[in-house]
Design brief:
Elements (H helix, E strand, L loop, with lengths): L4 E3 L2 E4 L4 E6 L7 E9 L6 E7 L4 E3 L7 E6 L4 E6 L8 E9 L4 E4 L3 E6 L1
Parallel strand pairs: 2-11
Antiparallel strand pairs: 1-3, 3-8, 4-5, 4-9, 5-6, 7-8, 9-10, 9-11
Length: 117
């Protein structure tokens, strides 16, 4: 297993949409969960969305109804579809992948999302 590779960040106006992607290595059969955190300057890191291998999803209250996490098992990829973006969604978004064997999590390098007013 190696560090997952993220893509899709950028600059968008408030109300717009972006989709983040995170490609993991290895077999999806060995992946227990995937998800996204974000951290804005001066703020604590926040869990944005989480999806388990069985498809159960969890979202931060601040993004419920606006963000959707999903996976493409054939491509070992997790997506974060972000809609109705707000200025306060501006942050560095990092994905993580948690493997079953050995039990370990790997983090992406982070991708900047900037929402302008």
């Amino acid at each position: 297993q190696v560090q997952p590779v993220e893509s899709g960040g950028g600059l968008v106006q408030a109300g717009g949409s972006l989709r983040l992607s995170c490609a993991a290595s290895g077999s999806m059969l060995n992946i227990n969960a995937m998800g996204w955190y974000r951290q804005a300057p001066g703020k604590q890191r926040e869990l944005v969305a989480h999806i388990t291998s069985s498809g159960t999803t969890t979202y931060a209250d601040s993004v419920k109804g606006r963000f959707t996490i999903s996976t493409d098992n054939a491509e070992n990829t997790v997506f974060l579809q972000m809609s109705s973006l707000k200025v306060e969604d501006t942050a560095v978004y990092s994905c993580y992948v948690t493997y079953r064997l050995p039990s370990r999590s790997y983090w992406g390098q982070g991708t900047q999302v900037t929402v302008s007013s």
